[in-house]
Amino acid sequence: MSAATRATPTGIERPFALEEIIVSKTDLKGHITYANDIFVRVSGYEEHELIGQPHAVIRHPEMPRAVFKLLWDTVESGRELFAYVNNMARNGDHYWVLAHVTPSYDREGKIVGYHSNRRVPEKSALAKVIPLYDALRAAERRHSDRKDGLVASTAMLEGVLAQAGMSYHEWVWTL
């Protein structure tokens, strides 16, 4: 399931029902420790193929890296985040989600992993998310160095949000 063996995006959207919630848990490094039946079915992987794998196994290559940087920076600091994410199933189909990612704590209050619930997003929200994400990915691709691309994409995202006068978290709730 390495990046070299991953499927090519098909451009076909893989639906799941409005009432379904995809659930996963990861360790501190983002390796999957739990996947519910809906996650298994929608992703197209078997449960045993998901457990122990980096959550990035379902990352769609057209997802802006700046959004994942924001996500990781937020949850590693102990805060929750709602984010629109385009995932890729085993066969290359994609499925958009509105993810709610939270840190998981032990009894002493130490972060021990992360928990994510994902729902079907509103199509009207995606109509605003997709053009922004396309622009972020274009900013990333303009740089041959991946780090420079991430810096450019992050700066663009921060600029868009600053112009709107809100955080990403707040922006998500305006959609």
Descriptive overview:
This protein is α+β, with helices and mostly antiparallel strands. It has a single domain (22-166), classed as 2-Layer Sandwich (Beta-Lactamase), CATH 3.30.450.20. It starts with 21 loop residues before the first strand and ends with a helix. It has helices at 37-43, 47-50, 65-76, 123-141, 146-164, 168-174; strands at 22-26, 32-35, 81-88, 94-105, 111-119. Strands 2-1-5-4-3 form a five-stranded antiparallel beta sheet. A hairpin with a 5-residue loop joins strand 1 (22-26) and strand 2.
Percent strand: 15-25%
Strand order of the largest sheet: 2-1-5-4-3
- What distance lies between the first and last C-alpha atoms, to the nearest angstrom? 34 Å
List segments where confidence is low: pLDDT < 50 over at least 5 consecutive residues. Answer: none
CATH topology title: Beta-Lactamase
Identify the CATH architecture: 2-Layer Sandwich
Record field, number of beta strands: 5
What's the overall geometry? globular
- How big is the Rg? 16 Å
- Report the helical percentage: 25-40%
For the record, the count of structural domains works out to 1
Biggest sheet record: 5 strands, antiparallel
CATH superfamily: PAS domain
Organism: Gemmatimonas phototrophica
Protein name: PAS domain-containing protein
Write the layout of secondary structure elements.
Blueprint: E1 22-26, E2 32-35, H1 37-43, H2 47-50, H3 65-76, E3 81-88, E4 94-105, E5 111-119, H4 123-141, H5 146-164, H6 168-174
Helix pairs in contact: 3-5, 4-5
Protein name: PAS domain-containing protein
Domain PAS: 27-78
InterPro entries: PAS, PAS-like_dom_sf, PAS_fold_3
